[in-house]
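fold-stage: in
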Amino acid sequence: MGKFILCALVGGSAFAGFLGAQLAPSAAANSVQQTEFHSRNDAVSTKPVVIELFTSQGCSSCPPADMLAKRLAKDDALLVITRPVTYWDRLGWKDTLAREDNTRLQRAYAAKGNAGSGVYTPQIVANGGGGAVGSRENDIRSLVRRADRSGPFIAASTDDSGQVNVTINGRSDHMSGVSLVALSSEETVQIGRGENGGRTMHYTNVVKAERNLGSWRGKPKQYAIPPEYLKISGADKYAILVQRPGAGPIVAAKLLDI
């Protein structure tokens, strides 16, 4: 059973265009290529494009996207974040990594009506804006090429106490929220039931927790991250996201070197 049926939750012309792209599901797997993204200069590499993958252990269409996410995560020009959703739990297998916050975020993105938006799996959203089927690398590459990298720079340092001090430098007329995202670099799950029953699934940079650090209002500002914020169970890496309110664009991101 394909998982693109849920796209019917999206109305209007955006849904019509997306539905047309889904008439041949096999194209999602076949479109994966072996070429990775590469940054062209230091400015690009220090301002990664955030690729959020909405996936599910109960989604038979998702494994190719999960594998692609693992490969894309090796590229420093990208920050891949996997966000397992909850709405396929009703099909017989409760996703062991899913968070309701991920589902709410995907729905909030869908409400924006951007190209490729909707509530479906697998889906990627690039920098909080346009979306694409998560296994279609060509479409993802196109979104990355068009991504806005003009946002602020993020720098981070660690003091003797283990506190991480994050500085955001840049100018903007818009307020953004600053969050700390705890990630598990790799998760392996044995699926017991459902459409992927009997399979062993692998996931990359899975969200374990998120914490609001405050707001950024377009001027240089520093944020302190105490050591206890970096002790989330199951997390082995942490990222900073700067995002406009209401599931708006992600204007800056950084994977912390800790």
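fold-stage: in (second)
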Amino acid sequence: MSAPISLDAVTAADPPAVRSGRGWALAGAVGGLVGLALFQFNPALTDVDSSLLADNARFVPAMAGREAYVWVFQGMTVLAAGCLAVFAAGLRRRLAAREPAGGLLPDVAAGGLLLVATMLLVGGGVATELYWDLRHVAETDPDTVAALATGYGTFAWVWAGAALSAGALAVAGLRRRSVSRWLAVFSLFMALLIVVVQAVPLQYLALLPAALWATVAGLTLAVERRPLGN
């Protein structure tokens, strides 16, 4: 009869290092590229004679017939939000595998991107209401539609949360080489640039540096094929 095996003598083998897929990083790049497209596409709706801006009763009819812009914009915000949410999850996993257990950097990096995704969905929600109002301009209050147009051109541009993500990635890279040094330096520069536009009444300009950061960071992390784990 064989002797019983002591549980204390059983040691679990260390799990092998695994390679993460690149989909999450590519999602970040796609989200950033869509953000850059929004920067160019969004103003087309309200590109009217500046003399109309002081009179909503004339301004709103000038936007009539452009509701297709709003529809496309809504789809773009949803796509960007979804991609950045996936990027947030992957970036958190990537940093958690290289940072000390219980560290805040992985959560801060993910949280910043989720804030951006939330603002994109808010902007898309405003676009939904604006779309239907522009289809029935004669039946709507021009002051209400003008207010929606202002939100349409603002909310989805507020990518300020990306400063947290870029900053966390910079700290992780510069302290522990969790990412390449050049990406850490680039992330630090982008984080500071985003902070600068938050210090003045130009919050929505965060879209440009933040989208550029997400694109570059996503592509870089997709190319860097390192196994998870320290």
